[in-house]
Amino acid sequence: MQKIAFAIFLSSFFLLRPVIMQYSGLLYPDDDFDYFAHATSLAFGQFPSYKNEYFMDATSGPQRAIGTGIMAAPFVSAFSLLDRVNGADIVEKRTAQNVQESWSVFGFIFASVFYFCLSCMLLYRSIAPLAGETFTVWAIILMVICQGMPLYAFRRPVFSHVPEFFLQSVFVYLLIKNEISNGKWIKKWWSFALIGFGAGLIALTRYNNVLFTIMWPLLFLRRDKWQKIFYVLPSAALLIMIFKWWPEQYNHYITYAGLEKELTIHAPWPELVRRLGQVLFGPDWGLIFTAPFLILGMGGLALLNFSWKKKYILATLPILVNFYIINVTGLQGSYYGYRYLIASAFPLFVLPLAFLLKWMDNKIGPLWKWGAVFLALLPVMSMWCWEGNALVATHIVPTFFGKTDWSNPSYQLNVWQTAFDPKALGGIIYLGGIQYSHYLFYAAGTLFGHKANPPFSMKTLIQALIIYSMPFVMTWYLKNKGVHRHL
Q1: Three-state SS at 414
Q2: pTM, rounded to two decimals
Q3: Cβ(330)–Cβ(401) below 8 Å
Q4: Are the C-beta atoms of residues 287 and 412 closer than 8 Å to each other?
């Protein structure tokens, strides 16, 4: 796990921008404020009311799903204690000004980093016994840490994709553990109730993953345990009633109103085939550039060699819904990569990728590692250059699908234009941890009467150190406190 922890640290060092965190709380417009409003309504004990929350584009309540806010709320609540001690006015009412520099919003950032690190550890603990430690470590680093997910942990953490990634990782972990134990791990009534709770939370976090809400519980039912479905359904239904139906009725609004119109758009088959080609090879967010190991992982499904292989393949089928959404609606998501796909897919395809790497090792020996590193340059450079300079920026433009969206039709070409320009690449490398280290060195001059710009913030330094250290602290805890024996 130490290698995974170090890889997470490197991604945080180069992708996290502490100076921006100091002023914006890493909040992007619109969606992020809705997710944060869900969390603060719970953390400050005002749910289901949103009258004291701040929104950028809503009137009655948040337009985004609440699951992310539910998962972040305990951490937001914990860090809000510092806002309470400091007498911050965010405790009474959230505004555009007070949320971004609060300890409460750092609680949401902390939650995303925590869930991201824990997801990687859970995947390691579940997959290593099947595929071996070496191949599991490589598979997690290549699938997860090299292919865009760190952006959703360290650049845009007040968002829904790290919680989505975590929930999928938990169910992958539970399925593998249960199958290895021949069904003896998930057998008590309360364990099936918790399965229902987790399944309901998946639906509340990303509506496009609703089929996983149905599929995951079914995979834990065996011939002599099918009655346990009656423990699953009430817990899932109760969760959805409390956190979706109740606030919408109380505040008189509907989340994602009119979404069904987008999902029923149709196009001729030749057009859909052309769109599929764009999704795979397009110079904007083509999976061959942003997530090539996802494609390899899909191929690795054929190499799985355990008795419950068919069940695991069934677990991957709801991913087709996300392909449908991308291809039929033409929606990319106005941020990095095909975000409607990757967070739900990556946890499922780490295992088959590990088996593929193991198969390649038997065929060609360690030479595959060089090929993997070379291929990883594509998604790593794509991720690293994101928001790095004007050349690799996104704009509101017509996309290949005919939509108008925040995108960059030639993003991958621009990435490599940047990569072969030492000055431009150096500028991007400098951003993040190197820039912040430089700033700290300069800010130290304030002790001798110099003026730092921006003003030095001890709070931001503490927050950055917490984030940088989290993968190592979590690894140490899991290793030395005996937790790994229970995982």
Answers
A1: helix
A2: 0.95
A3: yes
A4: no
Distance of alpha carbon 338 from alpha carbon 100, whole angstroms: 27
Q: pLDDT tens-digit profile of 11-56?
A: 999 999 999 999 999 999 989 999 999 999 999 999 999 999 999 8
Phi-psi sector, 333: left (phi>0), alpha (psi -120 to 50), beta: left
Closest CA to 55 of 91, 79, 29, 75: 29
Please name the residues in contact with 247: beta carbons below 8 A apart, sequence gap of 6 or more: 47, 48, 50, 61, 66
Separation between Cα atoms, residue 326 and residue 418, nearest integer Å: 28
Q: Do 115 and 162 contact (CB within 8 A), yes or no?
A: yes
Residues 6+ apart with CB under 8 A from 351: 127, 130, 131, 139, 172, 176, 300, 304, 312
CB 398 within 8 A of CB 406: no
Q: What is the pLDDT of residues 370-394, one digit of tens each?
A: 999 999 999 999 999 999 999 999 8
Q: Which residues contact 87 (CB under 8 A, 6 or more apart)?
A: none
Burial zone of 132 (CB within 10 Å; 0-12 exposed, 13-18 middle, 19+ buried): middle
Judged by DSSP in three states, 50 sits in coil
